[in-house]
Amino acid sequence: MQLLRRALGCILLLAMEQLVTAQPAANRGYDDQVMAALTARPGGLTAEAAASRARNNNPSLQARQLDVALSKANLHQVLMGYLPQIVPAAVVTRTSSNDFAFGSGVTVGAINSGPLSVGTCPGGVGDCVLDAGGQPVAAVASDVAPTPRNNYKLELNVAVPISDYVLGLSAARNAAKNDIAARQHSADAETRRIELEAKVAYYQWVRVIAQVAVAERALASNKARLRDARRGFRGGALAAVDVKQIQSLVASANVAVQQAKSFELLARQNLAIMMGESSADYQLGENIFADLEPLSRYGSLADLIAHGQKHRSEIRSLIATSSAAKAAHKGAGTQLWPRIDGVANVTHANPNQLFFPLEDAWNTSWYVGVSVSWSLDRFFQARAQRAIIDTSRRIADTHRQVLERGIAMEVSAAWNAWQRAATSLEESRAALAAAEAVYDQRVALFRGGEATTSEIIEAEVQWHNATMLLVNARIDSRIARARLLSATAWPTENKQ
Q: How far is 153 from 156, CA to CA, in rounded Å?
């Protein structure tokens, strides 16, 4: 009986030695398998490419760009409102009969002004009433003067808003230009948001790819161990409970693979939706194992916060909005003062009302002048409008202060996340090396009969976890970097 137990023990030892002898080779290829899954393919998708596609196909950004176009059209409309008012007109009318009658009797008239006298008529015959120049005074019958019933008029009126040019044009133009700038900065902020979301979605997709590779490797390892365990059970080297334990591990690993593949498909589809594409058949094109530049390259935390508070598009948009309100406040003040307009008119009419007597003939008349007007209701409306505009400016300034604090917190969070990821990267490298050493030690102990199968399994799981920890640290570093550069509005040319 004792000899049988020794024989079975030898068989068990030989079987397990074969198992663990194969496992180191498989596990030595574990990192290679994850690396293969995360290897960049030529023409594959990168984070920058994903951000570019999301930017070009995002309806939200297109709406912001239309806002900019609308603001530019508004500037054109504002400037058109300051053009001189030139109104040509052509009028044809027919009036009722309205002849002028100068009363009964006759009209006496003299050629020369001065006292009248009585003298010899011209020609020496008889006496006549003479004017101061010796010319006879004549009496003319008072006839009815006819008025033309058909009236024709060509008229050109010109009004030049002189006071608006002096007081309002510059303010109105500045307000409209600052509104354009505010909307453009808002569109730039939307662009950064879209790009950041696409990059984060890309790196989350890469993370799930790694999880699929880890899950598939664990499943293959557990299946190989199950086959060896069944052979050991048939040879009497292992108990049925050991086989069932490994069967449970295989089942759990299979579920993990299916879940990881489902998550990978979901992450890939979400990325495709962000990029506005119907197809989600992508290959990895970015080498996430390449080392990033050091965080210190971008300066201190205080420098990055100051850079973000100065260059973020949201800040610039609020500054432009405040400037637009200041210009609008100044422009509204022009309504408090009298309005001065230059006016001119040219009339070519038949008959022209400025010519007497009215006759069926074309005559031209003109006038130029200056009009000064002031309206009480416009005065009070301008004061109310200025109060509203001033309040809007103060709101924009307050929002800017709030945003500056939010940027400081956002930059600090991204800074700390990058530091944590860098620390985690170093620790995960050490953890992976330690997990490999522990596994090798457990194998050696098992060969000497001092380690169990459970300890081998535990060492392998730790190895798997350490590898995933390293992958996560690299991905977290890239996400933190993307968030930091976006939060600080770091120039594109400085991105790598």
A: 10
pTM: 0.76
pLDDT tens per residue across span 105-163: 677 788 888 888 888 887 777 788 888 888 888 877 666 666 777 889 999 999 999 98
Tokens (6 digits) for 399: 């929002």
Closest CA to 140 of 111, 114, 100: 111
Tokens representing residue 191 in the block: 């662009």
Q: Which helix (H) or strand (E) holds 341?
A: strand 339-350
The domain in which residue 438 lies consists of 2-82+162-338+375-494
Q: How far apart are CA 178 and CA 316, in angstroms?
A: 10
- Is 90 among the domain residues? no
Residues 89-124, buried b or exposed e (16+ Cβ, 10 A)?
eeeeeeeeeeeeeeeeeeeeebeeeeeeeeeeeeee
Query: Of the candidates 473, 411, 443, which has an alpha carbon nearest to the alpha carbon of residue 17?
Result: 443
Position 463: which residue type? W
Position 280, amino acid = A
Residue with tokens 């939060």: 487
Helix (H) / strand (E) element for 115: namely none
Mean pLDDT across 293-303? 91
Paired strand residues for 366: 346
Neighbours of 307 (CB within 10 A): 19
Q: Is residue 331 part of a domain?
A: yes
Closest CA to 187 of 73, 308, 311, 314: 314
Q: Who's near 460: CB < 8 A, 6+ residues apart? A: 23, 27, 221, 439
CATH code of the domain in which 213 resides? 1.20.1600.10
For the chain, the domain total comes to 1
Q: What is the pLDDT of residues 417-466, one digit of tens each?
A: 999 998 888 888 888 888 888 877 876 775 555 666 677 778 877 887 88
Confirm whether 22 is domain-assigned.
Answer: yes
Q: Which runs of consecutive H residues, i.e. helices, occur in 284-375? A: 301-311, 313-332
SS3 151: strand
Question: Which has the closest alpha carbon to 421: 292, 260, 304?
Answer: 292
Contacts of 302 (CB under 8 A, 6+ apart): none
Tell me the C-alpha distance between 300 and 296, whole Å: 7
**How far apart, in whole angstroms, are the C-alpha atoms of residue 382 and residue 335?**
6
DSSP 225: H
